[in-house]
Design a protein that fits this description.
The structure holds two protein chains of two kinds. In chain A, 76% of the residues lie in helices and 1% in strands. Chain A has 19 helices and two strands. By secondary structure, chain B is mostly helical. Chain B has one domain. Helices cover 73% and strands 0% of the residues of chain B. Chain B is built from seven helices and no strands.
């Protein structure tokens, strides 16, 4: 199994380098191959009941890291498929060539960094991997070279880097806490820290955990440090938006969970759970309100990401194993649902040339496959059965009630319902409302906008959505047995109570 | 016998604290500097001080890894980063006198207040500082807090980028004080990461300047809500 970790470390990086030099069609094929291979390799780890080590202990996967690796790899594969259709655009071939080589090199490097983050067995290297995701994705956000994209990329890189500065400080403080028990120059790996957790100084661990939630929470999109997120998600090219929302936020959550794991062992469950509960409730409340007032389709999906990150944080504040299994399932389901929804939004944008929901009409008519699938993806995000998010939120609420957190669970249900109403109402209205008959508009025929032609922009884009919805349905109806066991083991690693 | 609190500091302690105080003072100087180029030179000076601290601790405590850290820090932060940023600014001759969001005096007063806050918070924590006196960590925390102020209170891309770089200097000093045993691989990874961040920030600065013909971030007000 060790070779799998090494392969995941090497393949996307090598493809990123190659993509800079090879023709676009070759870069597409390489990216597709790398995405699918990474997912297959990650999935192979799902059945492994023991941690896997590689490269002399620098790389290590346990159940927790495998969950996040699978989420990243799945979205990497889907995005590789979607990107083929999204990037095949008409225009100046030399400009296309410049754009696509920057795009594919950046996309693969971004996915590589996100896949490496759960693989490394060291808090400092975890920070490095997440910082690399920031710098690479900031360039990808700016790649369209528009005024909005530059502004969004600048805000993103500055706010996220400051957040990660706090996270680095948290990492150093956690190292210092370990020094008290393990002496100077110890191995800064998770197993070593977890084994010494009971002897770590409590106030230092408390500070490190708080700073880590604030620092990595900036990248995860937790309130009040979420402000970069709607801008970056809405201005980035759609495949990048999908990765930012479905995978990057999850990877940042993974970093928080590593601190959570150590803090929980050192101090007991109350402190780390209360910290996440406070950030989670604030994020969910903000997102539920902002979802209602959005008019831009991609910003709507971005605020939905803030909402889901809030749900994850609240779910972790419940101590029952049911809730934590729900949280981990939610990571996977959110990756699939948000990826699919952004792919749909990207297809709409390509077809109708607008993200403004007031101007988006009749998507179901003009995009006969994408339209219904986008509606389904939005409903899936709103936790409608039979999709994975329904199952995961159900588990989280049930876990909250079973662990005695009745008020928190009730608030969660109330805010999720509010977000559900906003998300499903605005998004589905835009999709379902018929296209206006141009002859009914004022003005001469020459000045009237041409009605959009019926038909899909690209079958590559449709395929990625079909796969995303299939995965969502599987996660909702009957998750694979190996995966269910993996989630259970990961929940126990996080200190959940049976 | 003299109580420990009243005992004079050793030469090592006194020198290390004086060097770290220079890091904090250069942060204040960056906060009030009116010109982008002087801010970058101050950052180079601050990085030189941080590198010097690493060499000093390495020599006094005989820690070989810290020589490597000091060398990387010198090459990257004193030479490469300032050179890259100054080169990027070649086509941007404007100064940044108007980029303070508050008056200089008010900003310095706020900076003093948050520095004192940082020093007291750290003093109250039971964090063991193995190589350096605990005051180092307090000074480093104060420098980190002031670097945040620099990013928040200056509305130009150069100050915000320099604020981020100097934040990393503050964290480097904190790392020397309480995490000197962190492996060299991780330290090198931090430096590599900083280098990549400089390139990315530089590219974005150029994009912004090329589009808006200004280094001010006041133009970045299109995305709201």
């Amino acid at each position: 199994m060790e070779w799998i970790l090494t392969a995941i470390l090497v393949v996307p990086f090598a493809v990123s380098v190659l993509s800079w030099w090879v023709p676009r069609r070759v870069a597409e094929a390489l990216t597709l191959g790398s995405g699918v291979a990474t997912f297959v390799l990650a999935w192979t780890l799902v059945g492994s009941t023991k941690p896997v080590n590689a490269l002399g202990g620098w790389l290590r996967t346990d159940a927790l890291s495998t969950v996040f690796l699978v989420a990243v790899a799945f979205l990497y594969a889907l995005t590789a498929i979607f990107a083929i259709g999204y990037l095949r655009r008409s225009g100046d071939p030399s400009e296309d060539r410049r754009y696509s080589r920057r795009y594919y090199a950046g996309l693969n490097l971004f996915c590589w960094a996100m896949a490496v983050a759960p693989l490394v067995d060291n808090l400092a290297l975890l920070w490095v991997a997440i910082e690399i995701t920031t710098v690479v994705s900031a360039l990808l956000v700016a790649i369209d070279d528009t005024e909005g994209a530059t502004e969004a990329a600048w805000k993103y890189v500055i706010i996220a880097s400051l957040g990660l500065g706090i996270a680095l400080f948290a990492t150093i403080i956690m190292y210092s806490a370990g020094t008290a028990a393990l002496g100077n120059g110890y191995n800064f790996t998770y197993p070593v820290l977890l084994s010494a957790a009971a002897h770590l100084p409590s106030s230092v661990v408390r500070l490190a955990d708080l700073l880590a939630v604030l620092g990595f929470g900036t990248k995860m999109g937790l309130f009040p440090v979420h402000t970069w997120l709607p801008d970056a998600h809405s201005e980035a090219p759609t495949p990048v938006s999908a990765l930012l929302s479905g995978a990057l936020l999850a990877v940042s959550f993974y970093a928080i969970l590593r601190f959570f794991q150590i803090t929980e062992r050192a101090l007991g469950p109350a402190f780390p759970r209360n910290v996440l509960l406070a950030f989670g409730l604030a994020s969910l409340a903000l997102a539920a309100l902002y979802v209602i007032i959005q008019r831009d389709l991609k910003r709507l999906l971005a605020y939905s990401s803030v909402e889901h990150m809030g749900i994850l944080a609240i779910g972790m504040s419940f101590s029952a194993v049911l809730a934590v299994v729900g949280v981990l399932l939610h990571v996977l389901a959110h990756a699939a649902a948000k990826g699919t929804a952004f792919f749909g939004a990207g297809s709409v944008l390509r077809k109708l040339r607008t993200k403004d929901m007031a101007r988006i009409r009749g998507v179901i008519d003009v995009l006969p496959w994408t339209g219904p699938m986008l509606v389904l993806a939005v409903l899936a995000l709103s936790a409608m059965p039979p999709f994975g998010i329904f199952r995961s939120e159900f588990l989280i609420v049930a876990g909250g009630l079973s662990s005695g957190s009745d008020w928190e669970a009730a608030i969660l249900v109330g805010l999720v319902t509010l977000a559900f109403l906003g998300l499903s109402w605005y998004a589905t209205r835009s999709m379902m409302t018929p296209v206006l008959d141009p002859s009914s508009l004022q003005g001469s025929a020459a000045t009237r906008p041409a009605p959009p032609t019926r038909g899909e922009t690209s079958w590559w884009m449709v395929s990625s959505m079909v796969l995303g919805l299939i995965a969502l349905a599987i996660l909702g109806i009957h998750p694979p047995e190996d995966l269910a066991h993996l989630l259970y083991r990961a929940a126990l690693e996080l200190g959940a109570r049976r | 016998m003299m109580p420990a609190l009243l005992a004079p500091p050793s030469t090592f302690t006194g020198t290390a604290e004086a060097i770290t105080l220079l890091v904090l003072l250069s942060e204040f100087a960056m906060l009030r500097a009116p010109l982008s180029r002087s801010q970058i030179r101050l950052y180079a000076f601050q990085s030189l001080v941080v590198s010097g601290l690493a060499f000093y601790v390495a020599a006094d405590r005989h820690i070989g890894d810290l020589y490597a850290v000091g060398t990387f820090s010198f090459l990257l932060k004193v030479i490469v980063v300032p050179a890259v940023i100054l080169r990027l600014l070649k086509d941007a001759p404007e100064d940044l006198a108007g980029s303070h969001r508050l008056g200089v005096a008010s900003m310095v007063l706020i900076a003093i207040a948050i520095s004192v806050f940082g020093l007291f918070v750290v003093a109250s924590l039971p964090i063991a500082s193995i190589l350096l006196p605990k005051a180092e960590l307090g000074l480093a925390t104060a420098a980190i807090l002031v670097s945040f102020l620099l990013v928040i209170m200056r509305s130009d891309v150069v100050s915000q980028a320099v604020g981020f770089f100097s934040l990393e200097n503050g964290v480097s000093v904190a790392s020397l004080a309480i995490a000197s045993g962190l492996s060299l691989v991780a330290e090198v990874a931090f430096f590599f990461d900083l280098l990549v961040a400089v390139v990315v920030l530089g590219v974005l600065m150029r994009l912004h300047h090329g589009r808006a013909r200004t280094l001010s971030t006041n133009e970045m007000d299109r995305l709201r809500g």
